[in-house]
Design a protein that fits this description.
This is Apoptosis-inducing factor-like A. The chain has a domain of about 140 residues: FAD/NAD(P)-binding domain (3-Layer(bba) Sandwich), CATH 3.50.50.60. Helix content is about 25%, strand content about 20%. It is built from 10 helices and 19 strands. It binds flavin-adenine dinucleotide. The site of flavin-adenine dinucleotide has 34 residues, from helix 1, strand 2, helix 6 and helix 8.
């Protein structure tokens, strides 16, 4: 395959950005900008907290799948019409730019440090008799499920400010999840908050907004992460952010009105539920359009481009420990072993590793 001299810069090495980088690496000069040296299958991290060795397969060094491109391990801090600026002082020129910064998360720079962090979190869980989880979205629910199944003797208290769990799916799925958690002796407190400013290491007494006192040996904050777009708010794209900080894109996933800047994944305003398998589909559309635009060694401004059709129904699977899950399909909500069979055993890790061209099981350290 002939590699084109065009420069494609991809900002963000989550599932969306890494799929584009991998797809284009033999077609253009690719540069991936990410503050981590690795791609993390984000939802597998909760399993890695109860079984740290699980992270060996779900953390993939960018270099393992991006063998023919540049990697800059830093945050992007600005974009101009022609360059990306990074926190460590790089100014990278681009012909095409793909923004895939998803949600902001503060995780270590190296894969080995992240694996160490899983071990520390695991020690924290193992040494506690009672655990407070704050937040009843997918992260809080999946973490509660992992701990309840692997450590059935631990007392788990889950506090959620909303009237029901998992407010991104229907109430049927939420009700089933609540019953499942209660059947595992998880105490769920809805419509209550905890003043985070009072949190300190070693604190064992927590006060909820209803005046309840919770005693717990440790806590985990599982609150929604903010979108990682604040760095664009003073850039040439500042008017392309909506009121929630999402990047506005057209049906070809171009940032409004621009022919050479694209955005994909959770960071976009595409009207659909935010899911990794959809972020991957965005990435495939953009990679295919870019290949066509720059293909054959000559830029093709007039080539037809694929469009992306947003997912119209909310489809999601939330795992509940190693064997069960709750799933919302277009016309059906299911809980138990059947949806668990789809997701909970391997959490799609083997499948994603294969898609990235890696062995599903063998780990490269
Ligand atoms: C508990 C839970 C379970 C889930 N389960 C599933 C599931 O079963 N199936 C599924 O399909 N989806 C699932 N999801 C959703 C899925 O995690 C997201 O939709 C997906 O991770 C979005 O991918 P992304 O690449 O857009 O963003 P992210 O995964 O958020 O990646 C963004 C990347 O950008 C980088 N970045 C951020 N800021 C900058 C910057 N300034 N400069 C450079 N890089 C930057 C980050 O380091 C990161 O690498 C789940 C989510 C949660 C919370």
């Amino acid at each position: 395959m002939e590699k084109n001299g065009k420069k494609v810069v991809i900002i963000g090495g989550g599932i969306a950005g890494s799929v584009v980088a991998k797809s284009l690496q033999h077609h253009a000069h690719v540069t991936l900008v990410d503050p981590k040296e690795y791609f993390e299958i984000t939802w597998a991290s909760l399993r890695s907290m109860v079984e740290p060795s699980f992270g060996e397969r779900s953390l993939i060094n960018h270099r393992d799948y991006l063998t023919n491109g540049d990697i800059i391990t830093s945050n992007a801090i600005n974009v101009t019409e022609t360059e990306v600026w990074t926190a460590d002082g790089h100014r990278i020129g681009y012909d095409y730019l793909v923004i895939a910064t998803g949600h902001a998360d503060h995780v270590p720079r190296s894969r080995s440090e992240r694996l160490e962090q899983f071990k520390e979190e695991n020690e924290k869980i193992k040494s506690a008799s009672s655990i407070l989880i704050v937040g009843g979205g997918p992260t809080g629910v999946e973490l509660a499920g992992e701990i309840a199944v692997d450590f059935p003797d631990k007392k788990i208290i889950l506090v959620h400010k909303g009237p029901r769990l998992l407010d991104f799916v229907g109430s049927n799925a939420a009700d089933k999840t609540l019953k499942w958690l209660e059947s595992k002796n998880v105490v769920v407190k809805l419509e209550q908050t905890i003043d985070l400013s009072t949190f300190r290491d070693g604190l064992k007494l927590y006060q909820t907004s209803n005046g309840d006192t919770i005693v717990a040996d440790c806590h985990f904050l599982c609150l929604g992460k903010p979108l990682a777009s604040a760095w664009l708010s003073e850039s040439v794209l500042k008017n392309d952010l909506d009121y929630l900080g999402r990047i506005q894109v057209d049906e070809k996933l171009r940032v409004n009105g621009r022919s050479n800047i694209f955005a994909i994944g959770d960071i976009t305003d595409i009207p659909e539920i935010k899911q990794g398998f959809l972020a991957r589909q965005h990435a495939e559309v953009v990679a295919s359009n870019l290949k066509r635009k720059i293909g054959g060694g000559r830029e093709c401004g007039q080539c037809g481009m694929d469009t992306y059709k947003p997912q119209s129904t909310a489809m999601a699977i939330v795992s509940l420990g190693r064997k069960e899950a709750v799933a919302q399909f277009p016309f059906l909500t299911l809980i138990g072993r059947i949806p668990g069979f789809i997701k909970s055993g391997d959490l799609f890790v083997g499948k994603i590793r294969k898609q990235m061209g890696l062995s599903p099981g063998i780990v490269k350290s």
